[in-house]
Amino acid sequence: MDNLKVLIVGANGQIGKHLVSFIQDSDRLEARAMIRNQEQASFFENLGAETVVVDLEGDIESIAKAAEGVDAIVFTAGSGPHTGKDKTIMVDLDGAVKTIEAAKVAGVKRFIMISSFDTRREAILAASPSFAPYVVAKYYADEWLRGTDLDYTIIHPGALTNDEGTNLIQAGFDLEIGEIPREDVASVIVASLENDITIGKEFQVLGGTKAVNDAIQSI
């Protein structure tokens, strides 16, 4: 059986780099890293991963071309905490929606979205003025994805840290906010790609006590 080829949008981000590395170590998956410029390519080429240079602020067609021939797309791009509301709209909302539309154009059914911990209306109202635009962007991107017929999974990680991954998490909904290493979020994405049980599901993930695969199986 051929490996599942996965386009990682936002590959040069911190979660993205862990994810590409894990995918390249997997027997069942193969990565295509979507990056913004050629200077970012060497990290991924050293892992044996394919790269494609596309600006997420460009058009749907260029993203769709990057997705040609893949079996799944993971959206893990983010504008980052140090940009303004304009970039939040352009990347976290418009970039996400364009990637969803590009998946349809390219005929890619499987789509995994990395969202914010809680994107419900109550979370928007409770967010600080600086964080609220990000939650709003993620809210509408998630809504757009739910309204498609794609085989989607929406992952809502807690506060991200650069701690070493433990491969131990808790997954569910209505969890109390906590932390999770970015490396463990990448492990959750791999497990979600490898488990069809996650199709049509969304869940929160935090550091915990259950092995990633066991936690994903019990969603």
UniProtKB/TrEMBL annotation:
This is SDR family oxidoreductase. CDD domains: SDR_a5. Residues 10-195 form the NAD(P)-binding domain. It comes from the Bacteria. InterPro entries: NAD(P)-bd_dom, NAD(P)-bd_dom_sf. It holds the Pfam family NAD_binding_10. PANTHER family: FLAVIN REDUCTASE-RELATED, UPF0659 PROTEIN YMR090W.
